[in-house]
Amino acid sequence: MEPLAFVEVLGRHGDVLARHPVHAWPAHVGRGYDLEVILDDPYVASRHARIEPGADGRFRIIDLGSLNGLSLSPSWRRVADAELGPDDIVRLGRSQVRVRTPAYAVAPERQMRAASPYRRPAAFVAVALLLLALVAWNAWLGTSSRQEWTGLIMPILAFAAAVTIWIAVWALVGRTVGGRANFAAHGFVACAALAGVQVAGAAFEYLSFGFHAHGLDLAGNAAVAALVAYALYRQLRLNSRAPRRTLAAIAVAVVAAGVGLLVGINRSQESRRENLLSYDATIKPPAFLWVRGIAPEVFLARGASLRSRADALAQEPD
To answer: Which residue has the higher pLDDT, 185 or 304?
Structure first.
């Protein structure tokens, strides 16, 4: 006998976990083994609800006096009974079900696509090598002797180990939650973001030095924060089927909290250096200075003038 309808049990993200065919009305839902739809949910009663045909091809679900009752998604308001269409979802305990007839029109078939390039191990290896090259290059630029360069090998290896652990943790979470580790994809996202941070940091340093505009440092920090937020969003998407807006909001909130913490620490350190002279410690080749400054003679003359004024003030009687 052909089924009259199907009761679908849904996961937290709307994916179908099970389909129970209904061959006669009414259909009962609960944990009891003598029912048409059995839910393995400790928050569902042994005979929780009854489903029967309603008007206009819809269905009616009735609570059978359960402790936790029924509620229609997305509201948590408890109801004694409700009418269900093919796209309506009802909660019983911590389970979600919906009812559809065999005549329900399914969505058209989707065309399969090749795996995204960033999911391939070759892409991960390439961007990881690029990141190590950038880290080594920046470390070499900051050295002044060969002996100092050899001492940077261990920090570079420690950096590589920390990145590997970060990727492995995300892959483990993906394997636990979604059944797929996506190690190469997580590795590509993490290494690409860190490489972008390296490039953005260097670029804004040169721009700040070249145009003698220290405010560009703030723009560089904002660019770095945006890169980190996007990378976190991509890694969340690899492990979660939650709505994109929710994942984006989580990523932005986490990065904003981190930035706020760093700003607070920086302000605390600045308060300790309140009476010290602040200056820009960025040093780049003179060829990258794109704005004209004052000549050394003018600078020295202004210094001498300032010294004369200070001496004059010192000689004035109190």
So the answer is: 185
